[in-house]
Amino acid sequence: MKLLASMEQIMRNKQVIFNGFIEGAPKVTDMEIKMSNIELKVPKGSGAFLVKNLYLSCDPYMRGRMRDNIASYLPPFVPGQPIQGFGVSKVVDSENPNLKPGDLVSGMTGWEEYSLIQTPLQLRKIQQNDIPLSYFVGLLGMPGFTAYVGFYEVCSPKKGDYIFVSAASGAVGQLVGQLAKLHGCYVVGSAGSSQKVDLLKNKLGFDEAFNYKEEPDLDAALRRYFPEGIDIYFDNVGGPMLDAALLNMRIHGRIAICGMVALHSYSDPQGLHNVFSLVPKRITMRGFLQSDFLHLYPQFLEHVIRNYEQHKIVYIEDMNEGLESAPAAFAGLFSGKNIGKQVVCVARE
């Protein structure tokens, strides 16, 4: 009987396995789907907990974890092991005193159907409300919090500021633009398709938007949209767009460096040509991580939920169904296939 009970607790566990370190943009073939077995019982006294993963977040920072020996704020993925990322999960079994079966949590988890978590990273319990669960890896998760602290803490906005956001329809950029409008700023966003430009202007409330792929001269494009210059540039891409923005900043302008999605190769990086603008214009350019501001998360949650419930904030998701769709969903980030926050639905509870 004991053997039968033990066998009933063993489940097949579909996983997205990391094949090996990469150079350049991630490809679907850098990952593969495999099956393993997992016991749905946590070892006694381990302090660990077991979760069923519901939603997984595809985020550009994960590309840095696919490279070896690159100075990063998170360790690289382990070849032959499941990829890791932020997710929303349901607790199945727990030896953690703060969690019980049935609890919903967000935090770092494996790209697999079930994960045994020994050391929680940015783990938060989710209080059920009318907001979709998947939003806890987007609007109310790491990307939303990145937008919040990047805009308010790094950019130090003032009412009436002229603000430019690149990758503006993505997970972070779409919220930055809406927060800026709520703050009384003039906001222009760039994106990579006419469909995304339409969303920025007609759904997300940006004052203006443009398709950077249709602009032969980014400097001229920014001069056209900001004839008096840019007060704040929220940079999600780096590369030529950052170079053009440097030329168009106003005196005492602020640049928040959030991401470098345009940087496809660490071994052959693109340099900046216009950094001389920093001196005469007294520009502040600052990189940041949302994890530096975790003490502000409750404040962020209250602010964003209130505005969302009052229909002052909307959020666009790009949802892929099934764990097997995860490699293509992630790789698609780097060619702009996603429209909004890219999420993979593993299970709906």
TrEMBL record:
Keyword Cell inner membrane carried by entry: no
Coiled coil: none
Keyword terms, alphabetized: Oxidoreductase
Residue stretches making up the Enoyl reductase (ER) domain: 65-344
GO MF, any single term: oxidoreductase activity, acting on the CH-CH group of donors, NAD or NADP as acceptor
Superkingdom field: Eukaryota
Pfam family, one: ADH_zinc_N
UniProt keyword annotation of Translocase present: no
CDD domains (UniProt xref): double_bond_reductase_like
Name of the protein in its database record: ADH_zinc_N domain-containing protein
Organism: Cephalotus follicularis
Lineage: Eukaryota, Viridiplantae, Streptophyta, Embryophyta, Tracheophyta
